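Limitations

Structures in this collection are predictions, not experimental determinations, and the ligand pose is part of the prediction. Treat each record accordingly. The example that follows, with zinc ion as the small molecule, is included so readers can see exactly what is and is not provided: the inputs are given verbatim, and the output is the predicted complex.
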Amino acid sequence: MSRYSDKKDGARLHPDEKTPFACRVCGYRAAPGGAGTRHRNHCPNCLHSLHLDNEPGDRASECGGVMEPVSVWVRKGGEWAVIHRCRRCGTLHSNRVAADDSPLKLMSLAVRPLAEPPFPLEYWERLAENGGMTEPDGF
Ligand SMILES: [Zn+2]
Ligand SMILES: [Zn+2]
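Predicted complex:
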């Protein structure tokens, strides 16, 4: 069996509600049915996904790359969704969080930008002192 056909077979082992989910990234095995959605599209333990879809659920992508959770955002009605970015091709997808997703992983994704702001913290303090106005000389 060639390496290529190995990869294709692996990519077809995609999780849905009928088959148990075995994560290719962390090895976690999730019970079918725990996600609370029709399609489990990412691992509830490490939140990684696979690039198998062009549109959600269509299995039409040829890529098969690992999709890394890079952020969360809040949809209308307060529902959380995870932004996944493909390590191989850079495609971004948004996926609803599932009922059994790790709350700890979701929270650490959500606060990551706050923990690593792209500007010095003194700048933030100065901004607050000036009532939100930036100074003409910048930093
Ligand atoms: Zn995982
Ligand atoms: Zn991809």
